[in-house]
């Protein structure tokens, strides 16, 4: 893997920054994934399986809610990348776009929080938690409401974090990710020792993440001396309209991709019950560790692909893309083989004897994970050049079809039907995006 990366990276400053950013983000995300596993280990030991199942379902739903930034964050990153080339060091126009997006999302967060509180009695959140314990179901709904309110405010408070990648400062993002991960484990462990309610545990878990991301944004503002806070209502409107035209596609893509990634646990909770959802969530946690660690390098790569496409260096794009595919094949096939034979051993370490599954389940989850990572790799170049129409179409179609297909496969194959379904969707999506990526990098 290291040799493949070293062949890609050159000796100039930009490439050295990319390499440093990739490895710093890789390390930080690896630490974050390990800390998330430690949180799971703590929760399964101090709380019942049904309580953990509620928590697993909520984290899956929350992962979808947090992506609802209208795609403007990605559009903002691309816009500021363009302005960095055109502006002088003052970055006045960049600051105008930054604060326009910040104020817009802050206003949206206030409105959405009020609407959520007003309409909560009319939204059937309890259908997400299939259990005969109505008190636990009520607790799940309460946690979900609080978490959604936290997340709508997370979007404006964490905008600065995404811009570290634009400025080739991924190591700062990695630093705040590492601090947040370690602090989360410590707080959750202390609260669990005190037998604090799962409601408070869940709120603390998500609130810590928001606070550290906000501190990352504050550091970004002070580091770059972006103190032009005053933006007219006219500029806020004009900037966000411009960003929204590009961002609407990214928004749809973010929501659909996030739903697909978390669909297994959500469907298991709604159809089979929170206990089965807890089991399935635990099986997938092992693969999630590998996904989270490796997927972190995609952010620095996105910017490098965009720069290479802008200078029409398609040879570099092609070489980098195919090296990336080879690395993914090697790592995730090896990882799947390891889990097929040692997965239950790791589950006993993470959780307890209560959680175990078969060789076939690990194999199916491994194949699904491999296609998911290949799909993500094949999607980066289209995202980098804003050619995401095909990606958006297949993601939306998959969102529409995955629930009925999963229900059918669950009836015929039981819980095995979930990884079979996700393998089908990720496999087809990968081949479509691979075809489009080849078309882009073959352009002259």
From TrEMBL:
Q: Topology with regard to the membrane?
A: Multi-pass membrane protein
Keywords for this protein: Cell membrane, Membrane, Transmembrane, Transmembrane helix
What cellular component GO annotations does this protein have?
Answer: plasma membrane
Q: Name one Pfam family in it.
A: Polysacc_synt
Location in or out of the cell: Cell membrane
Residue spans crossing the bilayer: 21-46, 52-76, 97-123, 143-165, 172-192, 198-222, 259-278, 290-310, 322-347, 359-376, 388-407, 413-433
Chief localisation class: membrane
Q: Which InterPro entries has this protein been placed in? A: Poly_Biosynth_Transport, Polysacc_synth
Q: Which domain of life is it from?
A: Bacteria
Q: Could you tell me which PANTHER family the record lists for this protein?
A: O-ANTIGEN TRANSPORTER-RELATED (PTHR30250:SF11), PST FAMILY PREDICTED COLANIC ACID TRANSPORTER (PTHR30250)
Name of protein: Oligosaccharide flippase family protein
The lineage, from the top, is: Bacteria, Pseudomonadati, Bacteroidota, Bacteroidia, Bacteroidales
């Amino acid at each position: 893997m290291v040799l493949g990366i070293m062949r890609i990276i050159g000796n100039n400053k930009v490439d050295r920054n990319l390499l440093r950013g990739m490895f710093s983000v890789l390390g930080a995300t690896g630490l974050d994934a390990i800390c998330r596993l430690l949180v799971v280990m703590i929760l399964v030991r101090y709380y019942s399986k049904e309580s953990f199942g509620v928590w697993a379902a909520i984290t899956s739903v929350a992962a979808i809610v947090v992506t609802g930034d209208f795609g403007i964050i990605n559009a903002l990153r691309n816009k500021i990348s363009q302005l960095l080339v055109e502006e002088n060091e003052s970055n006045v126009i960049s600051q105008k776009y930054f604060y326009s997006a910040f104020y817009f999302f802050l206003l949206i967060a206030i409105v959405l929080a009020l609407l959520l509180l007003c309409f909560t009695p009319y939204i059937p959140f309890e259908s997400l938690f299939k259990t005969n314990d109505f008190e636990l179901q009520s607790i799940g709904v309460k946690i979900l409401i609080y978490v959604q309110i936290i997340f709508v405010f997370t979007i404006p408070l964490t905008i600065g974090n995404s811009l570290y990648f634009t400025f080739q400062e991924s190591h700062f993002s990695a630093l705040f990710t590492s601090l947040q991960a370690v602090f989360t484990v410590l707080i959750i462990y202390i609260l669990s020792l005190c037998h604090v309610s799962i409601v408070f545990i869940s709120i603390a878990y998500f609130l810590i993440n928001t606070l550290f991301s906000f501190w990352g944004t504050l550091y970004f503002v002070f580091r770059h001396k972006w103190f032009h806070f005053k933006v007219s209502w006219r500029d806020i409107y004009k900037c966000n309209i411009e960003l929204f035209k590009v961002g609407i596609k990214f928004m749809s893509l973010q929501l659909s991709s996030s739903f697909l990634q978390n669909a297994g646990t959500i469907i298991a909770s709604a159809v089979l019950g929170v206990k089965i959802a807890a089991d399935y969530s635990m099986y997938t946690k092992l693969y999630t560790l590998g996904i989270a660690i490796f997927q972190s390098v995609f952010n620095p790569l996105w910017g490098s692909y965009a720069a290479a496409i802008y200078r029409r260096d398609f040879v570099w794009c092609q070489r980098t893309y195919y090296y990336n595919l080879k690395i993914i094949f090697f790592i995730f096939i090896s990882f799947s083989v390891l889990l097929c034979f040692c997965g239950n051993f790791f589950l006993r370490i993470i959780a307890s004897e209560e959680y175990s599954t078969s060789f076939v389940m690990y194999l199916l989850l491994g194949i699904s994970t491999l296609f998911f990572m290949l799909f993500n790799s094949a999607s980066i170049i289209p995202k980098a050049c804003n050619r995401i129409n095909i990606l958006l179409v297949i993601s939306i179609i998959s969102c529409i079809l995955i629930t009925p297909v999963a229900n059918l496969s669950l009836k015929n194959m039981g819980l095995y039907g979930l990884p079979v379904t996700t393998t089908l969707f990720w496999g087809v999506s990968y081949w479509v995006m691979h075809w489009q990526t080849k078309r882009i990098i073959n352009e002259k």
